[in-house]
Every structure is written in structure tokens, then in C-alpha cells.
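Need fresh eyes. Consider my entry:
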Amino acid sequence: MSANLDLTDVSNGLGIMLAVDGTRPLPELTASVNAVCDEVERRDGRTVVVLQFDGGHVQGPGWPGEVTIRDVNRWERAVRRLERLPAANVAVASGPCGGPALDLLLAADFRIGTPDLVLVLPVNDGHFWPGMSVYRLVQNLGVARARQIVIWGMDISVTKASELGLVDQVSEDLDHAVQTAVVLMGRVSDKELAVRRQLLLEASAAEYDDALGVHLAACDRELRRLTVAAES
């Protein structure tokens, strides 16, 4: 499926922005995310991905609607692909943020919200949708706090989301916040960022001895980089 992708350059081409319409069918959303990943992998140099969520285009709590398990699998793989890109990704959300927007926000490196942002949790007939948002909530918050959210399924205000660390910055001036974030994140947006992101994601589950080898490999690459930088 080809994605009708409307990408906008940000900060003189340092970043690319995708406006995510959460009301679109899941296969179309999956294609859009994959197309963004294709564009990042095609580019040379550092790139920051900006995902913009408009509260006026959001699915309600009944996510994901009428889909097949194959659709869900493809969506989750696309989000995971985005999460593993050698590029920083920034999520920008206003108003209600639920469904696919919430999935993508939880996968982002940096999250910006407006004062009216509300995280709308995926609840159907009182049951929290058991997608990978549950996994990412545990990764972000730990089991105890994530359990409270999953069991009760209550929407999360921007104030609470900020306290929990689900939102990194609250701003009324999204344009300025995005420009600043893209410039700052652009300085570290490369393959080594992807490595550090992966180390963070795996730290809570990996045994020490299993993690040690991966960390040492990352340290070795960093030492080599510093040596080259010192000699140049």
C-alpha cells in the first residue's frame, strides 16, 4: 500500500514533520509510519522526526475499531520500526490524544504537549486494549504505576502526565517548542542515539551479565569515536 504522505521540513530541513490523523483506517496509518521510516533511512546526515497529533483528529477510547489481528501486528511492527530508527523522534500533541496517537507518543524520545492535552486511554467496555501501549507504559512507569492505569483506565491530564514523565514539556507555543526540540535533538540524532535508546529499553528486563556485553560494545564504539575526534 502506498502512503499519501504529507511531510513538512522543520528547522531548515533538520527535521521532518508528519501530521497524524488518528481517524484514518489502521492500514493507512501503518503505511504512513513505514513511509516516514523509509524517508529517514533514505536521507544522509542527521534527521529528527516530528509527529504532530491534532486533538480534532483522534480516535476515541474504542481503539482500534474493526481490524484484524494481522492489521494490529503490522501496526505494532511499524511503531517498533519508528522506535528503533537512527533518528530522534519528537511527539507533539494537543487536546485529546488516544488510539494510534497515544501509541506513537509513548514510543517517542521527546514528548511535547499543550496545556489542554489529555491522554485518552484505549478502553473497550471497561477493558484496557492489550496492545503494546501496555508494554510501553510499564517501560516508562514501572509495573506498579502502570498497573493502576491499566486496571482503572482513566484518562490522564497533562499535569498528571507530566508528573509521571509521560510528557516532557508543556507549552502553549508549539512552534517554538518544536523548533527548539528539533535543534537540540538533532545534535544527538544518529546511530549511537538508537543504541542508547535500546540500552534504556532493555535495562529493566535484561540480566546484568547479559546486558554487560552490549554496554561494553557501546563503550568501545564511544572510545573509538572520542579517539578519532581527538586526533582530528
